[in-house]
Amino acid sequence: MPEGHSVHRIARQFDRNIVGREVSASSPQGRFAEGAAVIDGREAIEVRAVGKQMFLAFDGDVWLRVHLGMYGAWDFAGEIEIDPTIASANGRMGQTNQRGTDLDAVYDAAGENSLSSIGAPRKTRVHVRMSEQTRGLEGADDTEWPPPVVGQVRLRLLTAVTSADLRGPTACELQTPDDVQATIAKLGPDPLVDDLAEGEERFVAAVRRKPTPIGLLLMDQSVVSGIGNVYRAELLYRALLDPHTPGKLVPEELVRQLWRDWSRLLVIGVETGQMMTMDDLDPEAYRRAMASRDDRHWVYHRAGLPCRVCGTEIVLEEMAARKLYWCPNCQK
Fold first, then answer.
1. Are the C-beta atoms of residues 66 and 46 closer than 8 Å to each other?
2. Domain map of the chain by residue range?
3. CDD domains given for it (predicted)?
């Protein structure tokens, strides 16, 4: 499932390439035909990302809410202009948690967003898939415009030079402004949306009043927005916190540390496109980490392997039907 950094990156691409333009909307699959007819011909005027959800506003007070869920993806094609806040003018994207390093783009064989996952830092005719599995779209033809529909496209948004195809979302619906506010009000704080200090207080209060294990609370989007399975495991390890600890028993300062660490890791994820959770890597180690998830995380996806710090075997267990990775020695 796309985590918060992916949705913020997608929203930035909409801001650069769709907002401010009249949009033709269609539902090639047919499942969103009525909604597409409502927004067809309208101008996209604003985009917001909150946690794992994106909201795209059109003139006439019509909003599109999209939650990609487990399998959703946006495919962009045509003239794509990269957001300058996540790429430098020379075609490189620098890491955010290392000093004095500017590395060429590298690609992740596992399919997670790479440094160049959303196109080059210039206008260029490309096909770009934006989801947690970011790879080229098979069957795409760069020479044909509009691009042919490939697969089950729930919604196609088309401007004069750019198209955005939505596949497999959990939610794709139209909302009124009041609906949008009600949806967002149910979500926990997002460090890239909410005031950091106020968000911290909301997060601390929510965690400290619940007997629910902290490993579940971090995945509860009403407690904090944007954290998924990868960030959950990594945040808990970085805090050396047992995932089974009831929220109300986690020391307040440790809860605050979790919020501040999430705020930091989310920014890194947005700027690099990677869920990079290891710090202080030398340039070569950083390049390996960007190219391979196996070198990027402390515990995630490392079941049965020795802990990078203590050597204890990393445990994999089910927690609320999701895979949880943790070190029973470091996190106790």
1. no
2. 4-83+118-182, 188-326
3. AcNei1_N (cd08970)
The count of other CB atoms within 10 Å of the CB of residue 206 is 19
Instruction: Please give, one letter per residue, the 3-state secondary structure of 60-123.
Output: CCEEEEEECCCCCEEEEEEEECCCHHHCCCCCCCCCCCCCCCCCCCCCCCCCCCCCCCCCCCCC
Residues 126 and 163: their CA atoms lie apart, in Å, by: 10
User: How would CATH label the architecture of 188-326?
Assistant: Orthogonal Bundle (1.10)
**CATH, domain 4-83+118-182, list 3.30.160.20, 3.40.50.300, 3.20.190.10, 3.40.50.150:** 3.20.190.10
pTM of the model: 0.84
How far apart (Å, rounded) are the C-alpha atoms in residues 218 and 213? Answer: 9
